[in-house]
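Hi P.,

Sorry for the delay on this. The queue was packed all week, but I finally got your sequence through. Input first:
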Amino acid sequence: MELYQLQSFVVIAQTQNLTRAAKTLNLSQSALSSQLKALEEDLDMVLFKRGARAGAIVTSPSR
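Then the structure:
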């Protein structure tokens, strides 16, 4: 786990939108998505819902 991954997590949570978070962080959407996936793999849990409500925090993270 890296600090930049945690910073990305915070921005995604604040914006609740992967595209807006990527713009805020000056990253491509795919780069941010890769960071999020790596963080979720490091923690062995899903942190955000994907799809229509992408960016919504999972209230009960699953492993």
